[in-house]
Amino acid sequence: MRNVIIQCLFYGSLTFGIWTALLSIYFHRNHVSKQQKKIQKPSPIWSLEKKLQQEINHGPKPIPRPPVRVERPTKEEIKEQRPFLKLGKDFNFSDPEVFHGFSKYGFNTIISKILGNERDVPDTRNKMCLQKYYPTSLPTASIVICFHNEEFNALFRTVSSIMNLTPHHLLEEIILVDDMSEFDDLKEKLDYHLEFFRGKIKLIRNKKQEGLIRARLIGASRASGDVLVFLDSHCEVNKVWLEPLLYAIAKDPKMAVCPLIDVIDYMTLEYQPSPVVRGAFNWHLQFKWDNVFSYEMDGPEGPTRPIRSPAMAGGIFAINRHYFNEIGQYDKGMNLWGGENLELSLRIWMCGGQLFILPCSRVGHIDKQRVAKQPEVTKAMIYNSLRMVHVWLDEYKEQVFLRRPGLKSVAYGNITERVELRKRLGCKSFQWYLDNIFPELETSKGS
């Protein structure tokens, strides 16, 4: 009897072990099958192609905005490429691909391609900014971005960052103005990718190259938002970037405001925080960044306090749309780009407005490098600057001619309309501007 019991226990244990092994194999194979299905999930690009094909076959259907990442490398790919990303300024410029991208666009297009169309950037705001709260009901924004032969990934990162980091109820539209670009990837390929953002994008294609100033005016004329926000085509906005700008303008419609501009390194494309600075210029009419007085950061707001700025860089700023029209928009007589930022800065201050930099709004900007300015750009910058000098500097234009006497005989076109605009707006003198806004300029005799 005892032997029978032992045999029963032995065979029972053996049966139990076999079933346990079979069940383990079954569950393992089931788990592997699920993982393979996940891996075989179609890519965002394939999904978009499928949706577009459905649209062709079955009529238009709305394509939802992503959170999908278009042409974004996987974590594994980024890990593999990280040593390459750290090469930075040690790149060999004799490498044809590096040299070609740099000479064509002014920055490292190899890394731009690796980064793709979207990435996360560090939150560079002061910690005190995180304690600020803004009303949910704010003016709406029309964001105007002009581009001419921009590198595709840089342009698309600009658009993606806006879409991902801007409350959609505040974003009236993004107006892209293609100023007669020649590159193929800014045509059908761009149209194709912008399908992700349908409903928020207006794409205008100029039939001739107008230059940045007139292209912006074309974009602004199509805007319907309360506030115009001008951005360059190689930017990446940061967290809670728009709300401070809109809130300041809501409180004072005659205030133009700029974010603090962080630097995106032209070789590494690393996003780097900028210190709190203000915009300024010298008697050569060259824009520069200037240190902020310590007393301007005193008080309870500390380094988050809005900074009064004598001038703006011009590429990135926000202004009430009706106020922009009221004070004369841009000088339509100016060519291409250059000088328009200082002219608008003087006009805002001298004609009853204000210009501030808001440290709690951060936007990254690729610091493009050009080997040499094209002759037509240099010519336009001189032409535009002279228009500003003869309309706004009064007797102080002699300070400019003392440093650059050759400019005294250079033509600058008809400025009658701008002189009349100054009279109509009842603008103050340039002496008032020096006394009240930028006294440091008058004392900088050597600059």
TrEMBL record:
Keyword Transmembrane: yes
Cofactor: Mn(2+)
Keyword annotations: Disulfide bond, Manganese, Membrane, Signal-anchor, Transmembrane, Transmembrane helix
Residues of the Glycosyltransferase 2-like domain: 142-324
Membrane association type: Single-pass membrane protein; Single-pass type II membrane protein
Keyword Manganese: yes
Subcellular location: Endomembrane system; Membrane
TM segment ranges: 9-27
Gene3D superfamilies: Spore Coat Polysaccharide Biosynthesis Protein SpsA, Chain A
Pfam (any one): Glycos_transf_2
Family to which the UniProt record says this protein belongs: Belongs to the glycosyltransferase 2 family. GalNAc-T subfamily.
Name under which the protein is recorded: Inactive polypeptide N-acetylgalactosaminyltransferase-like protein 5
Species the sequence originates in: Ceratotherium simum simum
